[in-house]
Amino acid sequence: MFTEGVEWKELLLGEVTYPVSERNKDGNKYPIYSISNISGFVPQSEQFEGVDSHSRGYDVSLYKVIKKDTFAYNPARINIGSLGFSGELNDVLVSSLYVCFKTKNELDNLFLLCFLKTSGFSDSVKSSVEGGIRSYLFYENFAKIKVQFPSITEQQKIASCLSSLDKVITAEIQKLDLLQDHKRGLLQSLLPVGAEIIPKFRFEEFQDSDEWAEDTLLNLASFRRGSFPQPYGLPEWYDDENGMPFIQVFDVGEDFRLKPTTKNKISELAAKQSVFIPKGTLIITLQGSIGRVAITQYDAYIDRTLLLFEEFHKEIDLTFFAYTIFLLFEIEKQKAPGGIIKTITKEVLSSFVVKLPSIKEQQKIASCFSSLDGVISAQSKKLEALILHKKGLVQGLFPNANEVTE
To answer: Within a domain: residue 139?
Structure first.
C-alpha cells in the first residue's frame, strides 16, 4: 500500500513532542504509578512491593499528574527501557523525577512508542546521556534525538500491525505463565510437602499402595561440588575453539536441561583441575540462582558453584529425583527471608528429608512431569519465534532499526 509513497521525514524529537509537567499542587490522592522497563506504567505497589506513598504519609504535592496519551520515562533508566505510555490511563501520579511529554498532531502515539523500543533509538540514547557514575537523559537531550516518520496514515498502519503482534505475544506469554503455574501446583500435589507422608493426589493404580519411605539425602546419594582452578578469568583456563563445555550457573536453564551450549569452554590445562561429568548427570545450582536443576544432555566439566550427584544407594528414577530435589529447594526458598537463599551448606543438604514411593510410582510421576515440560518447552519455543518475528518486522518497518530492545 505504501511501497511507492512519500519519503519519510526526519526531524528532532523536540520538533514533534513537547514536555508536560503538571504538579499535584492540591495534594490529590490520585493512584501512584511507576514506570517498569517491561510493562510501562504499573501501580507503585506492584513495582515496589509494600511501598505506598499515600499510606506512608509522603508529600505528593510535587508529584506529576499524568493525563491520557502521555509518555513518561525515568531519565536514569531509559537506557534499559524504563519508559511508558499512559494511553487511556488518566489522573494518576508519578514521581517528580520522571520526564513527561506528549506528541504533536503529526506524530501517532503508538508509532512513536514502537520507535522508542527500537535499537536505533537505544543507540541514540547511549550517545545522548550525560552524567558520571549514573547517566541521565533529560528532555533537553531527548529532544535532540532524530526520528524518521512517514505520513500519519502509514504511521497508524505500522502501529496497528505491531500492536496486533504485541497482543499475540502477550497472549502467548500468559499461556506460558499458566503452564508454569500449573506445573508448580502439580509439584505440590503429586509430591509430599512438609510433614505429609503421602502426596495430596496419587494415580489410581497406586491408591492402595504403601506410604512413601523417608530418608535423608546423605543416606540416599553421594554428592559433591564441582571444581575450577583459581582465579577465574585467566586466559590459559579457556579454549573457545577446541575446549570442553564448562557448566556454570548461567548454563542451567529453567526447563531441567542445560542450555544448548555453555557460555565458556575450558582448556585441557583447566580440565585437569576441574570435575568431569558424563551426559545424564543430575546437577543443581548452589550460588546465584540457587535451586536450578538439570539432567545434563552432554559431557562437560562442572564449576564449584554447582552440586553433582555421583551415585544413588537405593533404586531411584533420576527424573523423579530431579523434581523432588527441585521442590525441596523451592520449600527452602519460602522459609528464607524475602524468598532468597544466600547459600546452601553441605550440612543443610545432608539433612534434607526425601520421600520415595515404589520405583513404578516414581516412573509414573516422572513421566507426567516430563510430558508437561515438553508442552512448556514447545510453548517457550513458540514465544521465542514470535519475538524473533517481531524483531525482523521492526527491522523492515523502521529505517536503521536492527532489532527491538528487550
So the answer is: yes
